[in-house]
Design a protein that fits this description.
The structure holds two protein chains of two kinds. Chain A contains ten helices and 19 strands. By secondary structure, chain A is an alpha+beta fold. Classes of the chains: A alpha+beta, B alpha+beta.
Amino acid sequence: MSGGHCFTGLCLALLIGAGGAPSLAAPATPAERTYSDSGPEAQLARIYQEIEKNRLDTALTQVEVLLKAYPNFRLGHLIRGDLLLARAGPINVFGAAVNAPAEKLADLRDEAVARLKAYREKPPANYVPRYLLQLQPEQKFAVVVDTEKARLYLYENHNGQPRFLADYYISHGKAGGDKLREGDQKTPIGVYHVTASLPRQKLGDFYGSGAFPISYPNEWDKRQGRNGHGIWLHGTPSDTFSRPPRASNGCVVLANQDLDALAKMLQIGTTPVIISNNIEWLSLDDWQAQRSALQKSISDWRADWESLDPEKYLRHYSKRFLSGKQNYEQWAAQKRQVNSGKQWVKVATNNISMFRNPGAEEMVVIAFEQDYRSSNLNNVMKKRQYWVKEDGAWKIIYEGGA
Amino acid sequence: MTRSKFSGEKYNIMTSSRLPALAAIALAVTVIFAPLAARADTLQEANALFKQGQFGPALEKAEMVLVAKPKDAQARFLKGLILTEMSRQNDAIAVFTKLTEDYPELPEPYNNLAVLYAQQRQFEKAKNALEMAIRTHPSYATAHENLGDIYARMASQAYDKALQLDSSNASAQTKLSMIRELMGASASSSRPTQVATRSNPAAGKIPAPAAPAPAAPVDTKPVVEKPVEAKPAAVAAVEPKPAAAGAKQDAEKTVQDWAAAWSRKDVKAYLAYYAKDFQTPGNEARAEWEAERGRRINKPGEIQVTVEKLQITIDGERATAHFRQSYRSASLKTGSNKTLALVRRDSKWLIQQERVGN
């Protein structure tokens, strides 16, 4: 009897279909994917399939199952409302609630689109985020966040190669990514790591099941004049399962159950958290090629340092180099002077991690344990370097203790 | 949000002494005849008091009937209505619940139970009760309309949770229709003693399907009788006559045009498809029936009536049309099988009977 009318409002597929091409060159078939479907997305996708086939009764039954699992899932309640209202009469908008605040509806629509898109456009298993060039052995896991997709991807370190573990819906800053200033309600874009774990007992309900501050602003951020602080990964207040895609003051917010799952993996001071506006994915072949090129640059830098020829060593440094108050000239003068007093230098670089910095500029953040031995000085330290590509070659633009 | 119409402007309580079955019993068992008559009088008094808004005295009278006849469905039904009016919702719920248990084939107690549950915002229970009403009487329009409202109310609750709204204020109170009559005796208040007829209290024209009277309890207590036939009445027996060529197409066109007139809310054209001797539901007066149809069709909002799977059988000057009718209005969405008995007069097919079902 209701055959003809299209529940255009419910047919989010139209919205999603119009949402631009997938960012991947070669999407894999679902069979190739190894993703865990632990969150509500799989159920949500099934519900929308039923809606598209106009099997609204089945859809309603499934929404009720969904809500049993996630009682505070507002989006689920909205869909349930639409499906119930569709029984009373035709509806033609997503969220057909009378007097619904447009902003709240838009938030839920965005969440629906984000969740379904992430579910339908999962990256193929043989692709990795290009940022994870090398995890050092102690880094068991890596976190990569895509703000535009409202998604967090968790990878494990499988013999140096990132292997997908799970992905979660996230919320980020109200004003988007690329944090610049304190209070700009943006989420920083860059290479960070988890610096602490704040247990829920020390936090208000607003932060849900816990919080993990990250290392914003990093050395590069500071050099760029970016400020602000207190960027955390944290949970969700008890009155809702999730928040809209753009909701926080810059933090990355997960559902409590997802934060709890993630928390088990996070190593304080160690686990990298890389935040991008739009993750670029590489095939494993491309990833391997980029990684090898960088490894060679690092190896050359180390060998040239051991050569005691300051000019060979200094060619690895960008003219824009800056470390603390030292610019390139000062750095070069100091190295020339130091090297002249040495008979030999041996440098070992252990536990190297290499993370590409998201963004237009080709930049890599490299960290390692440096074991420096020389005729007159021995020193072991943790070091961090930022390398940039200049005229086709990788150059160091920042170097300092980590 | 959709709102169903209040259906029972006139509430009519069928008095048992007019029921043939009961009459037969009464004749056979003259000893109890007098008490029955007394009950009928008392019940009428209760009903009259109820209509005057004198709920306390009405309740007393109803209780008097129930002292003599504790199982009496009419009296219990009236008691439920009185208690509802007295805002004794839980008591009313108890009365209607018991009625559904004793007379599970009656849709009205389920419906009223649903209305009461809805007032208490127990929409899931309300929905279940209405679904029971519809299960017993698939074409029961009030239940369908009320169910539509329940869905809308449930939707509203879901939206509240989704959007963190609070619409549970008084203005959002449900406006579901309470059925005021059991088995729809259509006597208006001005004709209180008229023989019970069977106007449908809800959409009027969507009849309760034929169902046998609930088996009378072995004792002689008055029972409520179901309408003995669907209303509009069952299709008349067809007379074998040679069918004229093209008669079928004409009849098909008539049915489609009838649905079209209904859809465009052209009451005059719509009514013109009904024969002068059209059997109005419950033998209602033609004028009253027409007025009621006009009022319903002119309710605000679009109406869409479509006819599907139309099958016409021609038998001389008579035809039977079976089809699937999809009805959609602002407040109601139904699909039902319908049968029209058509008669050809002056080379024009007219509806003589209309009923839900095949």
